[in-house]
Amino acid sequence: MIDHSAITSISDLITEARSKEKAIVFISGKFNILHPGHTRLLKFAAEQGDVVLVGLVPDDDKDVSVPGAMRIEALKSLTFVDHAFVMSFPLVEIIRQLRPDVVVKGKEYQERENEEESVLKSYGGRLLFGSGDVFFSSFSLLKREYFETNYSSIIKPKDFPVRRKFDIRDLKEVLEKFRNLRVLVIGDLIVDTYINCEALGMSQEDPTIVVSPIEQTTFVGGAGIVAAHARGLGANVSFVTVCGDDESANFARSKLADYDVDACLFTDTARPTTNKQRFRARGKTLLRVNHLRQLSVDAALSSELIAAVEDRLPQTDLLLFSDFNYGCLPQPVVDSICEKAAARGIMMAADSQASSQAADISRFRGMTLITPTEREARMALKDAESGLIMVAEELRKTAKAEHVVVTLGEEGLLMYVNKEGQLETDRLPAFNSAPKDVAGAGDSFFTCTSMALCAGIDVWRSVYLGALAAGCQVSRVGNTPLTQAELATEIDYKPS
């Protein structure tokens, strides 16, 4: 007799998945002891859709040696299996009622008669055969790595809130204040391309790593992701930048529109849109290739940038300079914009990055906040020897900044801040114990901290919230904009 209650339970799961336009994949078998062949076949199933259901042969089958509950537990430990259950009725009947988009079977069944094939054809389902080979296209599996935040890897320090007299839960109220902010971002647009590869080994001809590209994912980066973060966190955002006349620019325009960012992109035919390619394998970046032309915009384009910013200043509460030193912000542009923004009393913050290029964060004068790395701070001062606190103090004086936060990667950050006229220092550790991609940490920290300060939040809570934002961002790969919901979830999250 068919267990209709079980079918109903699984049907509810499928109904929810279909409401979100997710493809359902079904695979069945005994799965007594999970071995690499099983894992590869299940991974193959996972890449064929979004939700993977596994049906288990009942315990009373003569070839089943492990109880169903234990087999279910083992399968559910795999991140690419969404639901597993013991089948209490014929396979064909399950498929007829659940109507999965895809049914996956092992390669050994390809030349056999498969009774479920006729049922699948009746409603347009597909029957696919996986070999269990080591090589498989892993993009569908990597979607979780790219777009899902791993909250369990984030550790929120408890001593800092106690020392600075605030409750972590109160930070959710800060997020609500972001909705009233009007943010203007100016800086270098970058398009980031992540190319995921299968590592094949070492070349026999020379000491070269050999990889095979599987899939690529493209993101808006640079100052563009700063604008997208600000919008995702709730602010109304305008973005002024320079791009080339190419497909990368078209991609950025489209993506920024999707993010609801008011983007003003000036085309400079003398340069391509900066594109950074990252080749990755097994969760690590092997190589980065930058496609760019590192030259300052000319006088005519500089005037257009200044005019575009000036037009938007009356509707601006916070001005963010996101400088990657690729030519969008020559000093005359910076000086002119700073003068006009200061005259209106607009809060300004700056981040000037120097990963593979020279940078000088001190050229942004009169900022409420600057957020250099230690290398960037020392580069600006040409000081490789002084203690870090002395470097932060000298940089604050040189740049005439109110607050300096020096980011230190896995060591966290150092704050040198002006608290009600008194200069104070403090430190925070890195919040994420297992980052997947640290490339976006600085942008998310800079954006969130600046917005909190502009919303009238004290510097300690602002920096803590910014560090939390960075912890969320590095828990996935690539530049996906932060959202208020993500931060609110992390604020509430308590490890089990």
Verbal overview:
- This protein has about 500 residues and is α/β, with parallel strands linked by helices.
- The chain folds into 2 domains: about 5-135, Rossmann fold; about 145-490, Ribokinase (UDP-N-acetylmuramoyl-L-alanine:D-glutamate ligase), CATH 3.40.1190.20.
- It has 17 helices and 18 strands.
- A 9-stranded mixed β-sheet has the order 10-9-6-13-14-15-16-17-18, with helices on both faces. Strands 3-2-1-4-5 form a 5-stranded parallel β-sheet.
- Strand 7 (about 190-200) and strand 8 (about 210-220) form a beta hairpin.
- The longest helix is centred in the N-terminal third of the chain and has 16 residues, at about 5-20.
- Mean pLDDT is about 90; it is low at about 130-140.
- One of its GO terms (cellular component) is cytosol.
- This is Adenylyltransferase/cytidyltransferase family protein.
- GO terms for molecular function: heptose 7-phosphate kinase activity; heptose-1-phosphate adenylyltransferase activity; phosphotransferase activity, alcohol group as acceptor.
- Catalyzes the ADP transfer from ATP to D-glycero-beta-D-manno-heptose 1-phosphate, yielding ADP-D-glycero-beta-D-manno-heptose.
- It holds the Pfam family CTP_transf_like.
